[in-house]
Amino acid sequence: MKAKPHVAILTFDFPPSTGGVQTWLGEMAARWSSRMRLTVITPVAANTSHEPWERFVVPNTHPWTFWRALQAVQPEYLVIGHAHPRLLLAAWLARRPFTLIIHGADFLAARGRWHFPLFVALINKAQRIIANSHALAARYRQHGVHAPLRVVHLGTDPNRFHPPAEPVPHPPTILTVSRLHAYKGLDTLITALPHIRQAVPKVRYLIAGTGPDRPRLEALARQYGVEQAVVFRGYVPDEELPRIYHEADIFALLSREEGGNIEGFGIVLLEAAASGLPTIAARSGGMPEAIRDGITGVVVPPNDVQAVARHTIDLLQSPEKRRAMGQAGRRWVEEQMNWQRVSEEVARLLLGST
Hints:
By secondary structure, the protein is an alpha/beta fold. The chain contains 13 helices and 13 strands. Strand 9, helix 8 (about 215-225) and strand 10 form a beta-alpha-beta unit.
């Protein structure tokens, strides 16, 4: 019997810690473990003794620490889980070909720093790069990255995120699930709320997530007199996340490029689509690739308060349109935008079968 290929993932971020990188890597590991011998090299300890992969926990994030781990593990294939100079340097020191996964701000935030040329040079050592959107891939190309680059759009789990079995009573609700940072554009929706309330007086804006921008957003809601309509739910545990989509009629993600940050894709847009919600997203970063404009949702210019208000009112007042977009989004996730498709596509690239 042919031995399974031995693959190692090098990463700072991995479950049980949470975030976009952790979700991507955790979903890949769960699906790859049946077809590969998988070793995850990370400083993040497990919260269970039963994992279908080997977890090699390192004591720190120094490049030499990861290099020593690679020398001990000796994988056939190496995946760098996110673009960071320390991880890339470890792979280069080990003289191992690697596949690099890029997600968004990990690279772009380094622009203008002293080490950026070195960062680009290390990225160009990659055997291949896998980006989550064409928009992100284009940004890397603009900054001197010439290594082979492929785009594999993200997915979500349609078994975990799905419409409620029975309708959950709630007032007309717009939902955003996001870290509260200025570039995430929640202020655009709050600024649009007075216009939306003129047409839909009982509307509420439900915000799930934490972050440093919350005080500013709360002050903005008071400034526009909509503080009673804006609900800050705060931190939502991962196991409760699917249910929060059941409390909404529309999902909005209005991120913009700001301060070196960019929305690489916007996986929450797919979670909302899987849950049967129409989505509204800004035309920024990779978000337009997470929506089929006019079919599963609507794409608007970033910071365009009037466009956000207009489309939100239209969807809130058009239950049939909401239902049609929600059903189209659900089908899209079931048929294409799911983790099974992502894992198979990335595995083919990684193992060189395509």
